[in-house]
């Protein structure tokens, strides 16, 4: 039976009033101390910017590494590769965009300039670019072709502009190089339409002149914010965090609320290649650590930021195309596994697919992408939660919403527990037995990341309950693989959350 409206309202009201008085009266059973509630209140103040929410919603992105390295057979160019080697005779950016789209990707990031300094657009600030290559007799602009192809295929377009430049004479000359870098950023941010991300690589080594450069990050950020306010800044920037490895490995519990100086980690570690930065390293804010955001991890951290992770890796051993790696393309099972753990583990997945010297994605890479795209489309096409009877405890949320709001995949409709009530139980029941492959949970992350622990259980016909999954964080998205279990009734229990869980979606998928 539904609780009377005044019971619900009264409960929510009392909990809030108590909190405001600083005397939150938490139930003994839940063992939520006043101190813990206060600390959790501090953690949930940390919320994402709209541009970060939009980025996380893209979920799966394509990375394109293409430059003179593709012709020189290198991973890190030296900067003295002649422009004449860059000659993609079958260049077809539409083929790249189509393959990415078919693969289920929603955006593409192009290495407009890698460490070798060669520019894929005719920058007016250097001669080391496509304009001095045989490609279209020096009249080509790969950045434009890719940006246009992305638009045609409904993909967002993003840029990678390596701060480390082994060709520029300005490199290592302080402000002169920063000026050069900013000029190039301005060219890219003003000539190619909307840019959804500027991917700032932390690699920092010597220039052609043997000198090191100190990057003026704050100036770069100011230029990006001014010219493309909706663009996220990745890596050595404040919006999207490098996950800490390039192998496609993910953390079981990936938090988006982390110590604020995580945003400095890549900036400083890049400098640490030539600076004695022991003190910083001892702080233990390395992006490779497993626990970046548990309560325990954050309790002594004064400054926190919302800094969601990205899992970036290549479909081949190298970032650039090498023919000898044609038989080392990752297979579908491997990519599917990483997709489920990265997109389904509160990170974006950025998969690199490098074009061949001809300017095409290799057929092997295209084939495996197509397989992955079909899997993503088919596995999550039919949400059988829509046909389930759904009920919850508490019966309704603080706004009086029924748990049915979780049937729509929409952040603006959510189920919000009263303050201090960390537990939420949701039952889904079907008329007939269902075979279930995946369960998807999402939090309304505009209110921060809150869920700490949850379980999923099957209720058998005789009424016995079997826990089939125990999870920790949810965040933007958690995909729980359930291995084709058969059941007529499922229960999702949030057993611990910061202050109160606010879920936005439950999806259940068969085969
Ligand atoms: C690294 C670079 O050094 C690699 O070449 C590649 O671009 C990768 C995405 O980032 O830092």
Short structural summary:
By secondary structure, the chain is of the alpha/beta class.
Q: Mind sketching the topology for me?
A:
Layout: H1 5-20, H2 34-44, H3 50-58, E1 60-64, H4 69-72, H5 93-102, E2 107-113, H6 142-152, E3 156-161, H7 175-191, E4 197-200, H8 217-227, E5 232-235, E6 241-242, E7 257-259, H9 262-271, H10 278-282, H11 295-298, E8 304-306, E9 309-314, H12 332-342, E10 347-352, H13 363-379, E11 389-393, E12 415-416, E13 424-443, E14 451-459, E15 465-471, E16 478-497, E17 502-509
Parallel strand pairs: 1-2, 1-10, 2-3, 3-4, 4-5, 6-9, 9-10
Antiparallel strand pairs: 7-8, 11-13, 12-17, 13-16, 13-17, 14-15, 14-16
Bound molecules: beta-L-fucopyranose.
Beta-L-fucopyranose is lined by residues 75, 201, 203, 312, 319.
What does this structure look like?
With 511 residues, the protein is an alpha/beta fold. It has 2 domains: 65-379, Alpha-Beta Barrel (TIM Barrel); 383-510, Galactose-binding domain-like (Jelly Rolls, Sandwich), CATH 2.60.120. Helix content is 27%, strand content 23%. It contains 13 helices and 17 strands. It has an 8-stranded parallel β-sheet with strand order 5-4-3-2-1-10-9-6. Strands 11, 12, 13, 14, 15, 16 and 17 form a 7-stranded antiparallel β-sheet that branches. Helix 5 (93-102) packs parallel to helix 6 and helix 7 packs parallel to helix 8 (217-227). The chain starts with a helix and ends with a strand. Beta-L-fucopyranose is lined by residues 75, 201, 203, 312, 319. The site of beta-L-fucopyranose has 5 residues, from loops.
